Amino acid sequence: MTDHLNFAIKRHEENISYVNALRWEIKKFYPKEYEVGLKALEFINDELGIKFSEDEAANIALHFVNARINTKSEIGETIQFVKVTQDILNIIKYTFGIELDESSLSYERFMTHLKFFFQRIKKNIQIDDDNDFIYQKIRKKYTKAYECAEKIENYFFKTCKRKLSKEEKTYLAIHIQRITQK
After folding, report:
1. pTM of the predicted model, to two decimals?
2. DSSP label at 72?
3. Which of 177, 175, 166 is nearest to 129 (CA)?
4. Which residues of the chain have pLDDT under 70?
5. Is residue 85 a contact partner of residue 173, using CB atoms and an 8 Å limit?
6. Where does the chain have alpha helices with state H?
7. Which residue, 178, 107, 95, 90, is CA-closest to 144?
8. What domains sit in the chain, N to C, each tagged with a CATH number?
């Protein structure tokens, strides 16, 4: 992070503006880290007299997220996670034609599931518990949610060249069902 801040200060001195295209998503998905980024900007302004835009708070937040998720992870992977998360949410919104309640417990649980889901994807780990009974029940009971999970699988195949296991789709379908219920 110190290298990043040093570079940001140099950009500021050279009057080079920077726009973080994912600021809104970072603020939404990582509100605590974003708040820490804002506090860091206050500190920098007080200590150095440099007033950065909120885009820089999002950059700082990414460093905290990255450190928490995996110390060997790259910022690019965290940015990719934010983009993939937004794409998955859009697939769900368009499939069901609804806006999601981002303040609900089901939404929070889904976001947590996606964080671990993305870590499994990154590490090439699949959930394979061979419980065909649950798979069949969820597929029949939550047809639309399961179809949505299959759309997400298609998205992953196009972007990551990876298919999802039946179990992974089953868990996605359960979470999708929960966050789309009124």
Report:
1. 0.63
2. T
3. 166
4. 68-77, 125-131
5. no
6. 2-13, 23-29, 31-48, 54-69, 75-96, 105-122, 132-141, 143-160, 166-180
7. 95
8. 2-69 (1.10.1790.10), 75-180 (1.10.1790.10)
CA 12 vs. chain centroid, Å, equals 29
| Lookup result for tokens 């998955």 | 88
pLDDT digits (tens, 9 = 90+) for 123-154: 776 666 666 788 888 899 999 999 999 999 99
- Residues 54, 39 contacting (CB under 8 angstroms): no
Phi/psi at 128 (nearest 5 deg)?
Answer: -135, 90
Residue 6 CA to residue 44 CA, distance in Å, equals 11
Give CA–CA dist 164/149, Å, rounded. 9
Residue type, 1: M
CA-atom Rg of the chain in angstroms: 19
